[in-house]
Amino acid sequence: MDTLIEGGMPEKQAKALASAMFQLVDSHLVTKNYLDMRLAQLKSELIQWMVGVIVVQTGLTAVLFKLMH
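Below the sequence we write its predicted structure tokens.
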């Protein structure tokens, strides 16, 4: 805020701008715990998806072997 005032901006306007910028930045910050939780969720979803693909692939392979014999 001091930089804005030193640059010639009125103090009231500088305070309002600084407050708005703080609120904007603060609303987009996340904690390390939140990131760890989201990464764990994504990892779990990815593993579930991969297991599903492996099950389908194994089933298709078994069907192909039965059709070939």
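Residues 32-68 form the longest helix (37 residues).
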